[in-house]
């Protein structure tokens, strides 16, 4: 597959995920918390494509999130870049992949990414760590992203298919 076709596929994925996040996911709330599809995209890209792909997709997803969030610009970019990279590291260590392992890994990495975002925001002056609902937010984002993980992993595998991506069973 050529580089041009992968760029087109990733552009399509980013467009669809961004529209879904802003128009659909932000309205599908559980206890006033919605899934973070852009974080899920970074996690799935890292798990299927390795640390470099996870970091690149994480940075792009975070940049998109920074455009519509009302927090300091760059916090989401940094958090999702680091989460995408960490996802790639985790994906590279999984020896015998199964659907259960991918779902659990996505839940854990989504929790870590959400906590990282809150920590970075707090370091830059937001009251994100002081939010009494932080544990609830982390838990709900993790569960919702885990529920959407298998389709997200398949989409990321399709978008970045260069015959080195991990196959999901």
CATH class: Mainly Alpha
Largest sheet, strands/sense/barrel:
none
Q: What is the oligomer described by this structure?
A: single chain
The whole-angstrom Rg is 15 Å
Average pLDDT figure: 89
Count of DSSP helices?
7
Low-pLDDT regions: none
Overview in brief:
By secondary structure, the protein is mainly alpha-helical. It is built from 7 helices and no strands.
Structure characterization notes:
This protein has 169 residues and is mainly alpha-helical. It has one domain (3-159): Arp2/3 complex 21 kDa subunit ARPC3, CATH 1.10.1760. 73% of the residues lie in helices and 0% in strands. Helix 2 packs across helix 7. It starts with a helix and ends in a 10-residue tail after the last helix.
Task: Give the SSE map.
Blueprint: H1 3-25, H2 37-49, H3 51-68, H4 75-93, H5 99-123, H6 134-147, H7 149-159
Helix pairs in contact: 1-7, 2-3, 2-4, 2-5, 2-7, 3-4, 4-5, 5-6
